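Worked example 3 (structure in, sequence out).
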């Protein structure tokens, strides 16, 4: 009875290990595919990360966030996030005195046609367009960062799946070994039938 139970648990463990190995393989493929797509799409934009000279007017926090990538091609999720949050957003905030696109656009929409045609109205229209373009680019870059993060998580999950599968395979081996040992012990301790004489 114990041997049968050990075998049942071991076969179940073997099935689970196969599922984990399959999941690990799929997660590893997702990590590679998504990572390659993010890198290819970002590389096509041909953005070069700003150098220290180009960030001199930014806050120290923004400069520190951009410094590790100074002068490199923007082709990773981390670079995309740094560029979006510490370069584009910093310039958008400086241009608009911290106002959002929604606020600037609302101000512009409330102007009369005559006010829109004035130099101040035209400047506000230009700022509105700048913030719209900045938000669009930031959104695209932050989407790339999000997908790069998903790729990283998939890679970590693949490693965990492979490690769990390896552990299960060891336990499966121990389970089958124990089942054999119990069978062998049962055969040795089974009572020997005594021949009956008439």
């Amino acid at each position: 009875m114990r041997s049968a139970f050990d075998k049942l648990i071991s076969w179940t463990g073997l099935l689970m290990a196969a599922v984990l190995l399959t999941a690990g393989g799929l997660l590893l493929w997702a990590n590679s595919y998504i990572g390659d797509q993010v890198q290819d799409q970002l590389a096509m934009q041909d953005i070069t990360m700003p150098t220290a000279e180009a960030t001199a007017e930014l806050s120290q926090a923004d400069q520190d966030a951009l410094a590790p990538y100074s002068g490199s091609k923007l082709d990773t999720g981390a670079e995309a996030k740094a560029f979006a949050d510490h370069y584009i957003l910093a310039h958008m905030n400086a241009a608009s005195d911290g106002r959002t696109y929604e606020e600037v656009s609302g101000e512009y929409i409330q102007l009369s046609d005559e006010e829109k045609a004035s130099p101040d109205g035209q400047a506000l229209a230009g700022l509105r367009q700048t913030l719209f373009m900045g938000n669009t680019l930031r959104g695209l870059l932050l989407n790339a960062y999000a997908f790069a993060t998903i790729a990283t998580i998939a890679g970590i999950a693949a490693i965990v799946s492979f490690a769990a599968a390896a552990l299960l395979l060891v336990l499966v081996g121990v389970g089958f070994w124990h089942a054999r040992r119990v069978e062998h012990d049962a055969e040795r301790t089974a009572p020997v039938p005594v021949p009956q004489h008439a």
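Notes: The chain has six helices and no strands. Residues 2-187 form one domain.
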